[in-house]
Amino acid sequence: MDADAVRERAADLPTEPGVYQFRAGETTLYVGKAVDLRDRVRSYADPRSGRIRGMVARADRIEFAVTDTETQALLLEANLIKRLQPRFNVRLKDDKSYPLIALTDHPVPRIEVTRDPEEGAVAYGPFTDKGRVETVVKAVRDEYRLRGCSDHKYANRDRPCLDYEMGICSAPCTGEIDPASYAEDVAAVHRFLEGETGALADPLRRRMESAAEHAEFERAANLRDRLEAVEAFHGEGGEAVSDRSDDRTVDVLAAAVEGDVARV
User: Fold this and answer.
1) Domains and CATH numbers, the chain
2) Which end of the chain has fewer CB atoms < 10 Å from its terminal CB, N or C?
């Protein structure tokens, strides 16, 4: 493609966030993300580096997908680069990945932030803001008191650990909570992670208001910060990605299957 072809193609693109691909035949040469697809692609009419100039010259077309947010564009770009391995991309070809929240496949599930979930775990994500994810998991454990310990620490205990004393674990390891009640707490956490924000936000808000009424302002401020993180949590990723090439809007659902384990 020459400069005029790039400008002509850019003029047809929306001014929305998304991901673009420079392609030659069936090969993807380069994948990039943009806050404004039209403006970003137009910049390739006069690339700054010889490497990118050579890539544009080899390309015969530019394909794109629109996302709802810049975060979605970032995640989609990372996934495409890992899958397609474009020769002109120098970043994100390695094993870098984004954090997930996982509930392990145990009779008494553990909650954890991880980039490599255990086999059988139910994983939610990926997310780009690890700090926010950790804040939300702390809020989850503070409210529903799910265990976060390793299997080694969990097994064969005769008394609860410090997490129980801190009020962030209900100590199922020593029977301080019965299995049915623990399962109810796990189900509530699943509901929250699947999008029911109120499952965590509502009790947090009640505790924040109670702390403020009792003039516990430092605690109320801490709960407020957690509440803000929780309420913003489900707005980070999202699932809708649309391809405007045929004037349709579609929801994209992907599944990765390895043996008898699948992640959606």
Assistant:
1) 3-84 (3.40.1440.10), 100-233 (no CATH)
2) C
- Rounded CA-CA distance 134/111 in Å is 11
Strands (DSSP E) found in the chain: 18-24, 27-34, 61-67, 100-103, 111-114, 122-124, 241-242, 256-258, 261-263
Rg (CA), the chain: 23
Other Cβ atoms closer than 10 A to 4: 9
What pLDDT, in 10s, does the model give residues 219-232? 899 888 888 888 87
Q: Per-residue pLDDT tens for 166-212?
A: 989 999 999 999 999 999 999 999 988 888 888 888 888 898 999 99
pTM: 0.58
Separation CA 148–CA 169 (nearest Å): 8
